[in-house]
Amino acid sequence: MAFELPPLPYAYDALEPYISSETLHLHHDKHHQTYVTNLNNLTKDSALADASLEDVIKQSAGDAAKVGIFNNAAQVWNHTFFWQCLKKDGGTIPAALEARIVADFGSVEAFKQELTQAALTQFGSGWAWLYEDGGKLKVGKTGNADTPLAHGQKPLFTIDVWEHAYYVDFQNRRADFVKAVIDNLANWDFAAEQLGV
Q: Per the record's keyword annotation, is Oxidoreductase included, yes or no (predicted)?
């Protein structure tokens, strides 16, 4: 059973003017598809070919002989998750999630500053995350394909800070892209669903 590229959960122009249709066509149809294709080629005729994406990530994480498999599997998962973290007219945090954020970060503003800082200080390619670890909400960042899944943490929300996520629309202005996502596109309802609140 081959891994497949899931469709975007919205139209290609749904996130404009912040993320263009051109960016989504490139990011989803080209970059995300390439990770899916590579993963299928790397796992073909192996025990991992019939495993779930999450199991492939967990079984290949930290294994130098399977670094290619991990990188592509994690990127397929991270991107699929990222698409769910965005929506038109986003940015509003549901009350139950807001209560958890305030309890663990002190305020919504402090949380947003920490998430922004994680996204801006990730050197090179990677991801900024809101995740749950040991019953507490935390913010972190991962390089390249790394994901909280590989560390026993529960991802709730992510921002893709690979250049292909924003370069067409924002050139080198990663800060403007991150602000646009947090203020206008963040699907906090999805994050609350992941948390179960």
A: yes
